[in-house]
């Protein structure tokens, strides 16, 4: 006989078909609250729910920002547009905090499979990435948390998954994208210092080589292609 968890999963599927992604998020949050390992199907439903909620808010935010810029150039009143943009930012930040809370309080502690742990740590970065920080210090703190989350995912991948495992390969690609964004936003000295401090936390020799490669890439002004080679070597080593 189906239990409460099955009912929430069923409703999540119905909400997905109806395009009611906020309700889908609520149903999957209820599933996560049972503190059990999610199945592949349940995990996919969770990702779909949050991806659509956060993605739709991000798209709306981009549209409003574009309108705001156009109106500003012609001298139109900006109060209403700015107010609505801030509303969207608050809603987006709320959705991001929601997934972070679910991950930290339920999903990561309850996970027993390597694949799940890697995906959840990657989702943690997904939630952090769209939070509107109210200061540069807060943004940098979020960035450090993001890198730490990827470091945790990478440790699991290297220890438990073979280099050709699809989850490990996808993690390598995600690492490339995220590290490249951080390199551009922080600048060479600050990023190198942060990555070095991150590797020092775990005392893994390979971490120092990855840090050295990233620092070398930045010093020489390498493009995305070269950095991709560096990161993919790091993510598939072992």
UniProtKB/TrEMBL annotation:
InterPro entries: 14-3-3 (IPR000308), 14-3-3_dom_sf (IPR036815), 14-3-3_domain (IPR023410). It comes from the Eukaryota. It holds the Pfam family 14-3-3. Residues 6-221 form the 14-3-3 domain. SMART domains: 14_3_3. PANTHER family: 14-3-3 PROTEIN. Belongs to the 14-3-3 family. This is 14-3-3 protein. It comes from Favolaschia claudopus.
């Amino acid at each position: 006989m189906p239990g409460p968890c099955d009912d929430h999963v069923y409703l999540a599927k119905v909400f997905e078909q109806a395009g009611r992604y906020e309700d889908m998020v609520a149903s999957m949050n209820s599933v996560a609250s049972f503190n059990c390992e999610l199945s592949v199907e349940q995990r996919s439903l969770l990702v779909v729910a949050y991806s659509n909620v956060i993605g739709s808010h991000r798209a709306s935010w981009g549209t409003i920002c574009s309108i705001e810029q156009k109106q500003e150039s012609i001298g139109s009143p900006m109060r209403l547009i700015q107010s609505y943009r801030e509303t969207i930012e608050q809603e987006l930040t709320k959705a991001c905090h929601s997934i972070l809370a679910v991950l930290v309080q339920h999903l990561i502690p309850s996970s027993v499979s390597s694949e799940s742990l890697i995906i959840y740590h990657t989702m943690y970065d997904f939630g952090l990435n769209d939070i509107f920080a109210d200061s540069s210090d807060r943004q940098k703190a979020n960035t450090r948390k993001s890198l730490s989350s990827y470091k945790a995912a990478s440790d699991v991948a290297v220890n438990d998954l073979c280099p050709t495992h699809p989850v490990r390969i996808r993690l390598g690609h995600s690492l490339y994208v995220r590290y490249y964004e951080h390199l551009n936003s922080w600048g060479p000295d600050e990023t190198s210092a942060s990555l070095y401090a991150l590797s020092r936390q775990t005392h893994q020799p390979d971490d120092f080589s990855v840090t050295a490669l990233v620092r070398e890439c930045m010093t020489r002004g390498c493009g995305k292609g070269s950095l991709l080679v560096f990161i993919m070597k790091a993510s598939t080593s072992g």
